[in-house]
Structure formats: structure tokens, C-alpha cells
Design a protein that fits this description.
alpha+beta; SH3 type barrels; four-stranded antiparallel sheet; 4 helices; about 35% helix; rod-shaped
Length: about 170
Amino acid sequence: MKMSNIVKIKNILKIAITIISLIMAVIFTGCRNFSFFESAISDADLKTKIKIEDTDINALNTQEILKGDINEKIESSDEIIFTEEIRNPFMPFYMKSQDEQTVTNQLALEKIYSDDENIYAEIDINGSTYKLKLGDQFAKIYQVQAINESSIVLLKGDELITIYMNEIYYD
């Protein structure tokens, strides 16, 4: 008998612990009795409880007039003029702006010919034609490195530029 009483007490304790655990879980999660009742109220019940106040028509007309005055002032005001030039936010500070960058040169190899001693090339740069041979410098920044049958190789600083016959090269 003692064994069966102990088993009954254990079963009752298990049930009691389960019920207490459920109650604690409901309390800690914030779920209370009144929240169940509030959710049961429908939107229609809430609308009937709201008191609709009478609106003053004169007050509405005054508000519309004020809105019209504000819109007129905004439309009649002068445009905003920036005194400083707007900077491109994607351009780093250390780069030159487009106005400060050097003007591009337009180079075109017009013809290549030779006499008994030298090979010559005629290059048009920005409308000025130069008659050049190997090693010549022109336009203060270019030097002729090689003259081939259909092209010329120029040195500009550390950069080699190859220009072909009837080709326009922008530098």
C-alpha cells in the first residue's frame, strides 16, 4: 500500500508542476485575461463608441485660405541660386576638376614619305601640320621614336603612343 500511495503522490505532483508551469508561462509572456477580452471587441463596436464632433465650416474655409496664401508665396518666390559651384560628391578632392584638366590634343597621321636620306611623317595636331623625322620633338611634349610604313610611334613623358594612318588620336 505504501508503494501505491507514493505513486499517487508522484502523479499528483507531476500534474501540479505542469499546471504551475503553464500559469507561469502565461504570466511571463504577458498574456493576461483582459487582453483576450479586448481582442474580442470588434471594430464596429469601437466606431459606435467614438463621438463624432461637429465641424465648424468657417474654420475649414480659413484653413483653406491660409493654405492658398502659403502656396502663392512659395510659387512667387525667386529661384534659389547657389553662389558656390556644386561639387560632384563622387570626385575625390585631389583630382582636378574638368575645367582645370589639360585640353586634349587631336593628333592625325596624314602621310609618310621618304627622300634619299630620311623618312618623314606629316602629323596634324589641332590644325597645325608638322613635318617630322626620327628623333624630332614637336608641340613641346612629343618626340618621334619610330616611323613605320603606316604608323608612327611618339613618346609623351613615359608613355608610347602609336598613331596609324588616317586615324584620329585624342590625347
